[in-house]
Amino acid sequence: MSAGDTAFPGSAAADAEELVAGLTLEEQVALLAGRDMWNVGGIAEVPRIWVADGPHGLRKQLGDPAEIGLAESVPATCFPPAATLACSWDPALAEEIGRAIGAEAKANGVSVVLGPGLNLKRHPCCGRNFEYFSEDPLLSGKMAAGLVRGLQSAGVGACVKHFAANNQEAARMTVDAIVDARTLRELYLTGFEIAVREGEPWAVMCAYNRVNGVYCSDSGWLLTRVLRDEWGFGGLVMSDWGAVNDRVAGVRAGLDLEMPGPGANAGVVLQAAVSGALDKADVRRAATRVATLAFAGAAEIDPSAPYDAEAHHELARRAAAASTVLLVNNGVLPLRWPSSIAVVGALAERPRYQGAGSSEIAPTRLDTPLDAIRERAETAAVTYAAVYDPVCGAELSGGVADAVAAAATADVALVFVGLPPVYESEGFDRDTMRMPACHDRLVQEVAAVNSRTVVVLMAGSPVEMSWAHKPAAILLPYLGGQAGGSAVADVLFGDAEPGGRLAETWPVELADVPADENFPGAPRQVEYREGLNVGYRYFTTAHVPVRFCFGHGLSYTTFRGGTPVLSAERIAPGQGLSVTVPVTNSGARAGSAVTQVYVRRVEGGVPGPDRVLGGFARFRLEPGETREAVVEIGPRAFQYWDAAGGAWRTPGGVYELRLGGSVDDVRVRATVVVAGDGVDAEAPVHPDRVAGEVAFAAMLGHPIPEAEGPLPYRRNTTIADLAQTWRGRLLRKGIMAMVRKQMAGIAGGDPTRAAMVERVIEDMPLRQLVMASGGRLSYRRLDTILRVLNAGRR
Ligand code: BGC
User: Fold this and answer.
1) Is 161 in the pocket of ligand 1 (CB under 6 A)?
2) CA neighbours within 13 Å on the CB side: how many for 201?
3) Residue nearest to atom 3 of ligand 1 (CA)
4) How confident is the model over 507-524, as pLDDT tens digits?
5) Closest atom of ligand 1 relative to the 117 alpha carbon
6) Lower Cβ count inside 10 Å, N or C end of the chain?
7) Which pairing describes strands 453-458 and 110-113: parallel, antiparallel, or unpaired?
8) 747-753: long-range contacts (C-beta < 8 A, 24 or more apart)?
């Protein structure tokens, strides 16, 4: 896609242009915000379309679209969330799932699905990591592009989110991510770039937060220069829900659509356009894009289009197995006709299969591991003990002791542990990487009495596992989606292989993670001082041992790689190459190999990570079968972002290509010589772990900005921040009571949702009250309130 092209099919763009040219300025302005929570368009001949969450299924809210509601939505297939699906390393599978979600969206009258989410996993405790793919931008981007292609092949738009550097939930609506240009480009923007270039999504959603001092919703640099001018994005940019900081600046910057609507900004935008403060051409451009989206969406909707819910469930089951990672196995798996099985842990009966928040799908049905194991175990005696509360994870009376007694006499013990729902959600981050203490104890005590203990770990992101050497096997289904329970049984009994490979590092402990020193940062500013030291890029460079490395995953079969052949042994600047390698299934069962190629600088180059993922290929082999894996390595694997010059540069050098089954498992090597582009840029600063003041300022190219204080109060003051003064506390109490009342229905009695709603309210900037008030509170009144609050602050 080149700059200026449209991402939309058919004549949508031309029709919209013609129509908008005939609209009044008021009508154009009216198009720049949604009609309500979920509807867009519907003004002056422009069709009204419905947009809905995403991303791993359809969440079309039931009830009044003027109100936000998380509790009730149409039944839809809940596929494995991104954290899980990424472990398949299979963009084609993501595409298949995208197509299925698209079909369900279409049948439900939804034109745009708000996903995929592809923010990079900077820190294992980001509350929304379950919605994101990987710590590696290439894997994230490829998986996201697959999902986008799939959705759009069904005639439904994708909306890639949250652009950009939205890597934590704490203070997510206002925090300023201070990131140096090289890190931003090489880590946090690359996944979006791949998804945009290769997937051509209809839409991109801007994030809530600021990046280097500017709200994403106001950033012309991000939304136009990088996204459109550099990457050739031809779709529409919409705001995250309530992310608009300054609507006029946003229209100018390239933020086409404000969501949700109708919002309070139409007047401000109109006034600015009439007074000349805002160019009318900017309004028209944004209105044309909204109309284009509406035309494209409306053309495809077909509520009578049937979809096969049963087939989608089976796809979800296959995807869950293909993404399940076998971390440890001393040979106990697959299970071979056990005489008795002790199943312990409530997650077997009440599995965690997705995360909480805006992505929570109402599944069409739900398979539980316990039912599936009972069914598959046939004549084997199966006992079950819940041990802990499935929601909060606390031990029940008799809990671990009863489980140990049952496990001691069983042939096999299946121990279900993980992160209970209240531990992981949109809206807040985890503050430790630990599971509830009784889960750790359960594993240790059961493994001590039964040498055939298999741990099944359900979580959306890594946990500490000091006991990892004790059980005979550890299976990691992450969050398996609605068919995950069956997929667990499929893998345990060997009806399916554990097809997954880790898409993120599992560190030994949180203290090993460099970003932890600046996470979640000050309430208003988070400094990415670790730079490129994220995930395996850090662990391999600093030689820090990990619990399970990036790319790791055992199989029920074995693979043997042959000698790689390179398409070129010397390449020019800006060129990539392909690596072809024969891979043989040397075991007795069919299985999927994931050939991973890491690029490691041997001579030349610039300071940076020891190795980066250059490319990968996944394919299935029958026993004894050999296939040629062809892995494309793009030019970026040999480049770095030159912050001073504002461009990608190729430093000449000798690079080793390491082929293997994980970042640490090198099977074969090859060498390529890369010619440099002859530009002598100053070598960038790369900290060993975390940059100190001076080094971070050097990385930024300017002094570290001073973090904003909480006072004086301003439009972006959060409700939590009001606690600074007694007048603020008084107002805060009033607002909390009012908003809580308004939002009471949202949680629908669910404790995880209730915790999320509470945190979301606390993190809300005051300006969002204007939007949420439905016209009762204006910006002018808010400014008056702020003046009163700030006068004689106490
Ligand atoms: C989330 C988005 C979501 C939107 C609509 C926001 O709070 O950050 O991911 O699409 O709500 O539910």
Assistant:
1) yes
2) 32
3) 358
4) 999 999 999 999 999 789
5) 9
6) C
7) unpaired
8) 747/70, 747/71, 748/70, 748/71, 748/72, 749/71, 750/71, 750/356, 751/391, 751/392, 751/421, 751/422, 752/356, 752/391, 752/421, 752/422, 752/425, 753/70, 753/71, 753/356, 753/357, 753/360, 753/425
Which two tokens mark 236? Answer: 């529409």
Burial class (CB in 10 A: 0-12, 13-18, 19+), 371: middle
Question: Measured between alpha carbons, how far is residue 515 from residues 343, 532, 533, 597, 712 in Å?
Answer: 37, 10, 8, 26, 30
pLDDT at 751: 81
DSSP percent split of the chain into helix, strand, coil, nearest 5 = 35, 20, 45
Tokens of 397: 């009376």
- Known catalytic membership, residue 240: yes
Q: Which long-range contacts (CB under 8 A, 24 or more apart) does 538-541 make?
A: 538/514, 538/609, 538/689, 539/505, 539/507, 539/512, 540/609, 540/610, 540/611, 540/663, 540/664, 541/609, 541/610
Per-residue pLDDT, 794: 64
112 CB-side CA count, 13 A: 30
In the block, which residue shows the tokens 């809580």? Answer: 740
> Tokens in use for 20?
């908008």
Which residues, given as ranges, of the chain have pLDDT below 50?
Answer: 1-4
Q: Given 240, 429, 512, 750, which residue is catalytic?
A: 240
- Letter string b/e over residues 731-740, b meaning 16 or more CB atoms within 10 A of that residue's CB: bbeebbeebe
DSSP-assigned letter for residue 395: B
Report the nearest-CA residue for atom 7 of ligand 1. Answer: 241
What dihedral do alpha carbons 729, 732, 738, 743 form, nearest 10°? -140
Q: Report the distance separating Cα 645 and Cα 639, nearest Å.
A: 13
What does the pLDDT read at residue 1? Answer: 43
Q: Which residues contact 64 (CB under 8 A, 6 or more apart)?
A: none
Beta bridge partners of residue 565, listed in sequence order: 580
CB–CB of 170/129 below 8 Å? Answer: no
Cα 54 from chain centre: 11
For 600-658, the three-class secondary structure string (H helix, E strand, C coil) is EEEEECCCCCCEEEEEEEEEEECCCCEEEEEEEECHHHHCEEECCCCEEECCCEEEEEE
Listed as own residue / partner, the contacts of 727-732 with beta carbons closer than 8 Å and 24 or more positions apart are 727/788, 727/789, 727/793, 727/794, 728/789, 731/785, 731/789
Q: Rounded to whole angstroms, how far apart are CA atoms 702 and 697?
A: 5
CA distance 82 to 94: 9
CB 590 within 8 A of CB 623: yes
Pick from 575, 620, 595: nearest CA to 318: 620
pTM of the full structure: 0.97
| Ligand 1 atom 4, closest CA | 241
Asked if 526 contacts 207 with a C-beta cutoff of 8 angstroms, the reply is no
Whether residue 53 has its Cβ less than 6 Å from ligand 1: yes
CA–centroid distance, 269 to ligand 1, in Å, is 24
Q: How much is the pLDDT for 5?
A: 67
Task: Report helix, strand or coil for 92.
Answer: helix
Mutation test residue for ligand 1: of 68, 70, 114, the one with most atoms within 8 Å of CB: 114
pLDDT, position 793: 65
Q: Which stretches does DSSP call E strand in 390-452?
A: 412-418
Which amino acid residue places its CA nearest to atom 8 of ligand 1? 240
Q: Which two tokens stand for residue 650?
A: 């190729």
Supply 585's token pair. 């299934």
For residue 3, the model assigns a pLDDT of 40
Cβ neighbours around 337 below 10 Å, total:
10
pLDDT at 284: 98
